[in-house]
């Protein structure tokens, strides 16, 4: 009986001590690595008016850009229990560019949109398995490997790189102390000046406002 009372007292004291100790989902110095599927969805068409470069005349046509899904990667370094810095990366996205309503394909381009954001985890120092967050940052989009569609009379497609703001919301679900699931949504300011030659017309230009939503679902690991 005495042993049972002693054991109960020890258990009660242990539980009281553990209850007094704050449990944190994330702490300063934690590194979170996530990988999954990321879809870039440009804003609804039209994405940009097409002008004749030499005269500035409006052709009355618009450029449209399609969606693409690639492997998305992000890395977060926690500055505190609530604040982290995220770097978003991905394998190159490839988009087809069309002339809206004209049945013409201008060509295709690839791009990489590295983004650095400051994130704020809304719950902070709790042991909740759900960890929602919001973030703001800067995006730099590098366009490369532009290919004009010569079968429709286009050549010399070129798109300028872009820099703009980015905003995001997301949530981590901690499956274990180290493994997590993530869902996140980004809004990115991506605008590019595009030029292309069209047989019989000359050089066309367009200020293409891609401004995509980016949707990502991923699996993560906390180091």
TrEMBL record:
Pfam families: OmpW (PF03922)
Organism in which the protein naturally occurs: Litoribrevibacter euphylliae
Signal peptide: 1-25
Keywords of the record: Signal
PANTHER family: OUTER MEMBRANE PROTEIN W, PTHR36920
Protein name: OmpW family protein
InterPro entries on file: OMP/PagP_B-barrel, OMPW
UniProt-listed SUPFAM superfamilies: OMPA-like
Origin superkingdom: Bacteria
